[in-house]
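Dissemination and training. As part of the outreach component of the grant, students in the summer workshop were shown how a complex can be specified as a set of sequence lines and then modelled as a single object. The example used during the hands-on session is reproduced here so that future cohorts can follow it. Participants entered these lines:
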Amino acid sequence: MTQFGKGCHLHLIDGSAFIFRAYHALPPLTRKSDGMPIGAVSGFCNMLQKYVEDNAGPDAPTHVAVIFDKGSHTFRNDLYDQYKANREAMPEDLRPQIPLTREATIAFNIACKETEGYEADDIIATLACQAREAGGRVTIISSDKDLMQLVGDGVEMFDAMKNRRIDREGVMEKFGVAPDRVVDVQALAGDSVDNVPGAPGIGIKTAALLINEYGSLEELLDRAEEIKQPKRRQTLIDKREQIELSKKLVQLDCNTPLDYTLDDLEVREPDPDTILGFLSKMEFRSLTKRIADSLGADAPVIAETAPQAAPEAAAAPEFPAIDPESYTWVKTAEDLAPFIAEAHERGWVAVDTETTGLNEMACDLVGVSLCTTAGKACYIPLAHRSAATDDLFGSDDLAEGQIPMQEALDLLKPLLEDPAVMKIGQNMKYDLKVLARYGINIAPFDDTMLMSYAMHGGLHGHGMDTLSERYLSHEPIPIKSLLGSGKSMITFDRVPVADAVKYAAEDADITLRLWQIFKPQLSPKKVTRVYEGLERPLVPVLAQMEMAGVEVDRATLSRMSSAFAQKMAALEAEIHELAGETFNVGSPKQLGEILFDKMSLPGGKKGKTGAYATGADVLEDLATEHDLPGRVLDWRQLSKLKSTYTDALQEHINKDTGRVHTSYVISGAVTGRLSSTDPNLQNIPIRSEEGRRIREAFVAPEGKTLVALDYSQIELRILAHMADIGSLKQAFRDGQDIHAMTASEMFNVPMEDMTPEIRRQAKAINFGVIYGISGFGLARNLRIPRGEAQGFIDRYFERFPGIRDYMDDTVAFAKEHLRVETLFGRVINTPEIAAKGPRAGFAKRAAINAPIQGTAADIIRRAMVRMPDAIDGLPAKMLLQVHDELLFEVETGAEDDLIKAAKSVMEGAAEPVVKLDVPLVVDAGMGRNWAEAH
DNA sequence: TGATTCACG
DNA sequence: GACGTACGTGAATCAG
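and obtained this result:
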């Protein structure tokens, strides 16, 4: 072993630069056998190989290392929280390749070095300084200008791309100053890429001029008064602090603590088995062969997988059988360490949390399971109770074999928040919300439920059981088998830990397997953008909204409840009087028998089950014949309002927060809409005056205001755009009353003679079109004869022939592809379109409606994803989404600022991906409660 | 558990 | 020619 010193030559390779160059230079290659993205790894290996070949000559290095960044938080972030803040997130298909580039470096038998919390540049600086002091030469393989400050005294750079050495002269050329003054120039000029502020208005040229004139930055700042240009002088005086901070940011640290020395970096011969093993594992055929030749070894045979017939047919990875007995019960920190280490090494980990209930806002964490490799999963029990010896209900003592909660969380937090490790979950919103309450903010993450939703929306549900059975042919352990059901149901913390291990670890195992199947399919199925841009980023936004909740005034609801109960009792007595007997008014069956058998009213129609239909439309028709149906309608309305709203809503007021927290289901609707549950806050009454008053109970707290913003006619606007209806588009551009305009066009009535009745009919037709109009449906809606309704539709299509074309084209597309798409590329599968019989009609109308409803849903999703940044700094919170409306809570006084910011996000939400021919218009309202805000 | 009804966009 | 139909949701209730 040679002691590093005079005559030694150290090469330092900027690994991250290699990776990004490789990633961007190559098309997104995937490994044939499992679809794993490996383009960047391939490029990286080729660059390493080229490097090795090019440096075999007489000037070969004696020592070499590839240096990588590790962790995203460095001392520079502590100096300046905006450091590198506008850097784009790592592309999704690159992330899993990062650990493989480390593996590749090691396979080449080159020292692979990284230090947590330090940028590669600082490690390079430290090693270069050490080598220089030892009297050796250094070549930094990089073209990064941030490293140029190190050049000089035996240190040079080499731009592998341009095949060019960069020495003192090269640096002078670039910065106009000697290497030792480069940081001064950078401090002044700033750097938009790393978000180093610098001095506004001063670029590299000016900076070099000033430094050369004054000798150093410090001198310049001290003598700033002498500068002749007034603006420049003022900048340097005003921004002194910012410039000094910038210098600290660009100055590389030569004193990074390292747990190795230069001697450890000595050049080593590659081991043929190791490198060829790695390359064949990656399935790099030509590179494997080339390196085998150069090493004089036999190239291993790489199994030829059958070329993929269709992108959809990407072969599933080979998995070992799912075996609940194989999972690890993590009892101590030592048990946990290998799982955390492997997660770091691989760059991903599947995570699942177990809790005492399904309500994330009102349940406790019981355990966490992890899985890094299919078949290798663990469960970390945290709050299981021990089985009691003496009584039936178990004790409150903690069970044996658990790491203390806080200790385990402290171990998990760095992993779950590590930007270099992808966290994989099934319905991550749940885990995100649970762990947020324990101070852990999971990022970055993938969600198998949302991947399935993006690819398989309309085909089947996206719950884990469904996905496991469909894609893994495995039926997971039912939760019922652990918790039981009904009255005797227990909570998860009462489940014996040994049983919990099997169940919980299996969930993580299944989730990881699903991810490995789904992830490579996103791109061939062309839903990467939808998944990455619309589904996944919505998760933290919704989590915030749900955790914020909305204030609901219990007293108001309670008062309404009593009033409703009184009125109902009165109505019920009347109804019984009219019927001549007492019966359950809430029973459609009993009501039908009273109306049609006992009273022999006309129009009794029995449905599939043999019961009379007693829906609102039937009762409305009967109301002309008799008083009883009208009373029942009134009673039903009150009953609905009381049971679903004034009573149930009170149950949902959270004990801790005093607010109501709904839960949105991202994959709830096939069209891309959200759905809202527990409670559903997307169907709070508004249409009837009586129901509308329920919104008075949704209030702003003291000192705050509710602001509601809703898209005006968004679906009709989208229809006008998609079907390309010139007159409709023009009407929207002119801000006309669209229903009146439609009526005028259809019935040849001048706008000034428009009557509310004609307008109402046109409005019904406009909506009918969005739903896939039929004569029957319109007739029923407008209560006109079917022939007349058909006549309206015919005339509509005559005036707007593009609508008919749109409908025909959409159905034809659906028939051909068994799916339709929104303007943003969301896929809505429509397998039923191939059905025969009445189901075909349903499928057709659904196919016509889906792109319109779905595009509207995409637009508001985009607005929501952008909203947190747009209202950052305003004292406002986004609380609710109701399909085309967003509800905010804002400190009184800041309403106008909020409306301005939020409105502009909403109105511009389609751009830049989609340029609509019609403007999107958002109406705003505000008030102390939701009724006023509307 | 399924059907019915009705609240919303 | 007959059939059955507006699109998308969730919750409460009855009845089996």
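Residues 272-305 of chain A form one domain. Students were then asked to discuss how this feature might be tested experimentally.
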